Amino acid sequence: MDVTKYNVKKYNGAGIYNGSTTKYVSNAQVHMLRVEINRE
Question: If 0-12 CB within 10 Å is exposed, 13-18 middle and 19+ buried, where does residue 6 land?
Answer without folding.
Answer: middle
